Amino acid sequence: METFNSNIFPKGEKASSDYFSGGIAWVQIVKPNDSELNCQIGNVTFEPGCRNNWHSHSGGQILIVTSGTGFYQEKGKPAQVLHSGDVVNILPHVIHWHGAAPDSEFTHLAINTNTQNGIVEWLEPVTDEEYKNL
Amino acid sequence: METFNSNIFPKGEKASSDYFSGGIAWVQIVKPNDSELNCQIGNVTFEPGCRNNWHSHSGGQILIVTSGTGFYQEKGKPAQVLHSGDVVNILPHVIHWHGAAPDSEFTHLAINTNTQNGIVEWLEPVTDEEYKNL
Q1: In this complex, do A39 and B4 lie within 8 Å of one another by their Cβ atoms?
Q2: Which residues contact A73 (CB under 8 A, 6 or more apart)?
Q3: For A4-17, how does the pLDDT look when each residue is reduced to its tens digit (9 = 90+)?
Q4: Do A5 and B9 touch (CB under 8 A)?
Q5: Does a structural domain hold residue B24?
Q6: Residue B8 forms part of a structural domain
Q7: Would you say residue B4 lies in a domain?
Q8: For residue range B29-42, what is the model confidence (pLDDT) as tens digits?
Q9: DSSP letters spanning B40-99
Q10: Of A39, B70, B102, B107, which is least surrounded by CB within 10 A?
Q11: How many domains does one find in chain B?
Q12: Which residues of chain A neighbour B1 with C-beta distances below 8 Å?
């Protein structure tokens, strides 16, 4: 069985604590936005316990989980547990968050689609109470 | 260093010999097309020597190389060598092909963007002469 370093991308820059809490996240932009493909792709690595704020995407987003265990939750719905190989379709304007499990680093590609409509609209942090009561 | 099976997706179905030559390719659709995200994603695995036909995408495509060594060539330009972590932006209507090196399996994600404009338009095979003269 072929194995390789799961980090095929550099870890990138520390993400802003304005939009992430519970630990540190790193973001490597692997495909900058442009006006012909209308797509921006980032590789995001979350420390255990780290998650992003509630947010939405006017053009939608697709997550491809590449390592670790994490969560995805849409407002008003139960959280889903995510593992390597899982794909999440986030439709435009759906309020949600994603991040690592308390005991696992978590990495995913974040593919922003239809970026002519906007990329991300940030909302409030996911509180410790929300995160602990998953 | 964390390592994991590079095949985070199943290998999928054998691709049609109408559109691939020089060996076998497998395609696993990891995100079916839809009319809200306007995006379809496949994971493509090429045997050594295997490449797809010349083709273009009306909505564009992004390749993310996940393992092995391969090539990408646009019509009238030199071929580029691709390795794990490389990202290729294929603008709408650009005629091109991609595939494995003669001595390496090659795997990439193929992210079809703006699929409201179409996904793929197939052309003629890449001949052995074209492939051997890279």
Answers
A1: no
A2: A79, A80, A96, A97, A98, A134
A3: 445 789 999 999 99
A4: no
A5: yes
A6: no
A7: no
A8: 999 999 999 999 99
A9: EEEEEEE-TT-EEPSEE-TT-EEEEEEEE-EEEEETTS--EEE-TT-EEEE-TT--EEEE
A10: B102
A11: 1
A12: 5
What's the pLDDT at A6? 56
Neighbours of B105 (CB within 10 A): 19
Query: Which tokens belong to B124?
Result: 């003629």
Q: What pTM does this model have? A: 0.95
Contacts of B92 in chain A (CB under 8 A): 36
Q: What is the CATH number of the domain that holds A71?
A: 2.60.120.10
Average pLDDT over residues A64-75: 97
The tens digit of pLDDT for each residue in B76-128 reads 999 999 999 999 999 999 999 999 999 999 999 999 999 999 999 999 999 99
Would you say residue B72 has pLDDT above 70? Answer: yes
Report chain A residues whose CB lies below 8 A from the CB of B11.
Answer: none
In a domain, B6, yes or no: no
Q: Kindly compute the dihedral angle of the four CA atoms of residues A107, A81, B114, A112, in this order, to the nearest 10 degrees.
A: -50
Out of A6, A9, A85, closest to residue B9 by CB: A85
